[in-house]
């Protein structure tokens, strides 16, 4: 009997809870359905593209050590997108290096090298190490590149030689550059060109190794025929860099006067060698085998400025010879020039070879103007400075 009463009370209580309106509680109306956007072909395509881009961006996140986004996993995902396309791989390697992920780019290049020729990608890696002053690492990567059957091209060697020229250790760089250059000379697959020659000459110039520099010129034939940049590099290398009284290993035991005499003798030897090089330049210029530009003229002019007063005065004749700017003279020298011309007309001399036409002259610029003013100041002919300024300044571009 007691159990029946308990069950009846329980049923009554539950029936009251199931009908809230009976106890004065208002029932809430059912919620209205949310409007759904209309999915058409116009909206589906951008959604799919955004989803793909989001998945691609997830691959570019920083790798978590030991997690699913490890370096191996990231590289594998990139390889699925890049495939065997060397162009896409090179662009991706370059962009990855620019983002500071060199190890990721290197691992990608190593894996893709098993199935495609990606020499350009390796060039980007070597160039990055060279710009970071990591000469040994760059050459080690160059050797690894060859071991992975990735044949270096002409641009590879240009990157290596230019990197050696910018190295902070010129003595080490010149040894490596000469070794690689001589290997190219003995190779049947790829011979060095004039760009490689100029780059190696620049390496020798920075190291002050003139003997190796002139030895390299013996191989300057055919596709390695010297151009204006070649002679510019040689003339800049001949210039004596140290100061007259600067102590070096060669003059450590000399006093001040002896050091000055040794410096003058060294400068004279450099100028004489430079003049022999310049005679070769002028001979090729007159025969139309080379173009003379302002940089080449100023390289020779700066070499002349390192000499004595008589040599510094030759700068004005150099500018007249190569740029067609008449040599101006003050009143004291006009009479001597008139007498010299009168004597020259009376004497029978051999005809001198004519320079090229006006179109073949080098165009003067701000470097030429600076060099001429320096020459006038050193030879105490400052009265001619305004006249040269009026002649050369209009041809100098404003900066």
TrEMBL record:
One of its GO terms (molecular function) is mRNA binding. Transmembrane segments: none annotated. GO terms for cellular component: mitochondrion. Gene3D superfamilies: Tetratricopeptide repeat domain (1.25.40.10). One of its GO terms (biological process) is RNA processing. Residues 329-366 are annotated as: Disordered. Coiled coil: none annotated. Pfam families: PPR_2, PPR_3. PROSITE patterns: PPR. This is Pentatricopeptide repeat protein.
